[in-house]
Amino acid sequence: MGVYATRSPFRPNPIGLSAVRLEEIRIQGGGVVLQISGGDFMDGTPVLDIKPYLPYGDSIEQAEGGFAAKAPEVCLDVTFTPETMAQCEAQVQAGKRDLRPLICEILGMDPRPAYSKRTGPFGTRLGGHDVRWHFTENGVLVTELRPLPEKGGD
């Protein structure tokens, strides 16, 4: 995902991040004008991206959410192939973090975009591993769990 899609405050450029109040939406000269207030930027600063307020993620006291008032719920069963289950168990035996709860929580919420019902394959980096999965009739099947190379120190 891109830096805007993730709402990350850690940006590779000097673009700021502000929470604002949407005061008004109007059509003007063939375009849409959003009237906002409460921003911590100077007049004339361009607004490059705008997202709805999410109470479960943005957490601003006394703010109201109208777009997605509560966090999504885990809705899909996540299973592991025997090989990926064995890899997870080996990690635990070696005294490392058990990735299964985190993988189940993330994939159980169906991380696909709402417009896509593609079944896969999908992958992401998580906890020092390349995790691969696809969607099945019964939920999600984790098919690969590959350790990523460790980063060299300075």
Provide a descriptive summary of the structure in words.
The chain folds into two domains: 1-71, YaeB-like (Elongation Factor Tu (Ef-tu), domain 3); 77-147, 2-Layer Sandwich (YaeB-like fold), CATH 3.30.2310. The chain has helices at 55-58, 82-93, 100-108; strands spanning 21-28, 31-37, 77-80, 122-126, 129-136, 139-147. Helix content is 16%, strand content 27%. The strands form two sheets. Strands 3-6-5-4 form a four-stranded mixed beta sheet. Strands 1-2 form a two-stranded antiparallel ribbon. With 154 residues, the chain is α+β, with helices and mostly antiparallel strands. The radius of gyration is 21 Å and the shape is elongated. Strand 4 (122-126) and strand 5 form a beta hairpin. It has three helices and six strands.
In the CATH scheme, the class of the largest domain would be: Mainly Beta
CATH homologous superfamily label of the largest domain: YaeB-like
CATH architecture tag of the largest domain: Beta Barrel
Total separate domains = 2
**Count of helical stretches:** 3
> What sort of overall outline do the alpha carbons produce when their principal axes are compared?
elongated
Order of helices and strands, N to C? EEHEHHEEE
Strand content: 25-35%
Helix % is 10-25%
The major beta sheet can be summarized as:
4 strands, mixed
Strand pairing plus helix content: what structural class? alpha+beta
Low-confidence regions:
none
Mean pLDDT: 82
Number of strands: 6
Query: Separation of termini?
Result: 28 Å
